[in-house]
Amino acid sequence: MLGTTLVAVLLLVPASGRATGSPTSSRLPDVVAVDLDPGAVRSYWTGSRMRSALPLDLDAAGDLIDPGPPATSRVRARAGLASPRSVGKLFFRTPQGDAVCSAASVNTAQKNVIITAAHCAHTGPRNPCGLLRNCPAYFTKFLFVPRYANGTAPDGSWVGTRAITHRQWVQSEDLDYDQALIEVAPRSGRNLVDVVGGNGLAWNFPARQTDIHIWGWPAEAPYDGQTVRRCTGSATPLDSSGDAFIPCPLNGGASGGPWFIGKVSPNIGFIWAVTSRRTTVGKAYLLAHPLDSSIKKLLSNARLYSRASTTRTATTVQSNPAVLTPFAVRAATSPSVSAVRSHVGRGQLAVLRARAASGTTLTLDVRFSLRGSWSRVTSARVGSTRTIDFTVRVASVGDRWYRVRTSTTRSAAARVRVHPCPLPYDRTPAVVDATECISPVS
């Protein structure tokens, strides 16, 4: 029903940028890049310019949105919400003035790359300067500020030195390719990823996914762009284009923010999309086109991509895999545990379903080898249904075993296998086999 409603809204606006072919399509390489002038960038971005920079966003049809004003009084992120170190606010200069988007670091060989939306790096085929010639298509004075908060830069600021976009964006503003990479210069002799960590990229995942985390710096009322915000939920296919949408009220300034399909730690995870567009009428949704294999061309162009650093998920995963370590319940009062899915991807959630008498306090333990020592994970009390689910985010690759115990007895173990890449919501072998990723690094 949500998809039908959103599609109905989109039908009210002109067709968005989907490449249909062009006589000049063979004249440009698949990737277009430009070296940026890093001179005086950091000194240019004074506190006043940062506060007054306007968000650069697209509506659901792919048209530029006139930015609205920020909140007159600051609306801060809710208490306790801290940005991942690898996510930040992106400042840059356009022909119309200073602008902002959101971005995140990427784990590459050079360790100095961020990912954002293409419309936050390049104008596309439109000429923003009217009849003026030599109008810069690439924006300038890029400054990435991880964990930006109320004018502060806890992990420093990083100057952009090179911007890389898809030909399809430059030539026809194809929304499937609304992604860009920006290289940044080392700071005080240190690389960006060595300071804030580097996120993995995950591509060829279908639009329907669960447990999605989106981060960004919305800068229009009721937000002021000074603090990070987050949305979580499930992504839904928009239509046959392969786009995904998710309910989320983030507005101008959130463009380019990462969509995490799995978090390895509070600071890093796997990015499978970046915010491309948002609705401006009706319910609030963010839209994005999940990364596909073309992202490898951007990485390759940046001379950062190593095939040895990518992994393909195993094709042996079944749609509904059975628990790999079955056990027999010894008595009606004995606790038991099983894995809802015995195969999960790194950074995703493992669900352990335990059963015991009502009112029993169960402790969940884990070990990482058959003969390893057990470590406590958490405890919970069983309710009237005599069943309880423990949800655990898994951060390392390989097998692990879980058990539950009471003060007097314990269950047999259930094994969970953690794959190097996140696993898609649709776990049929053909879908799983198409997915690939680059691993994150702390």
Structure summarized in a few sentences:
The protein is mainly beta.
Fold blueprint:
Elements: H1 2-10, E1 31-35, H2 41-44, H3 47-52, E2 54-55, E3 87-94, E4 97-106, E5 113-116, E6 140-146, E7 158-166, H4 167-172, E8 180-184, H5 192-196, E9 200-203, E10 209-216, E11 229-237, E12 244-247, E13 258-263, E14 269-274, E15 277-278, E16 285-288, H6 295-301, E17 310-312, E18 336-339, E19 343-345, E20 349-355, E21 361-367, E22 375-381, E23 387-393, E24 398-405, E25 414-419, H7 429-434, E26 436-438
Parallel strand pairs: 2-4, 9-14, 19-25
Antiparallel strand pairs: 1-7, 3-4, 3-6, 4-5, 5-8, 6-7, 7-8, 9-26, 10-11, 10-13, 11-12, 12-16, 13-14, 15-16, 17-26, 18-20, 20-23, 21-22, 21-24, 24-25
Most strands sheet = 10 strands, mixed
Spatially, the strands of the biggest sheet line up as: 15-16-12-11-10-13-14-9-26-17
Q: Enumerate the spans where pLDDT stays under 50 for 5 or more consecutive residues.
A: 1-5, 7-16, 19-27, 73-80, 304-310, 313-332
Number of helices: 7
Q: Give the number of DSSP strands.
A: 26
Taking the alpha carbons of the first and last residues, their distance comes to 40 Å
What is the highest CATH level, the class of the largest domain? Mainly Beta
CATH fold group of the largest domain? Thrombin, subunit H
- DSSP strand content: 25-35%
Specify the CATH architecture of the largest domain: Beta Barrel
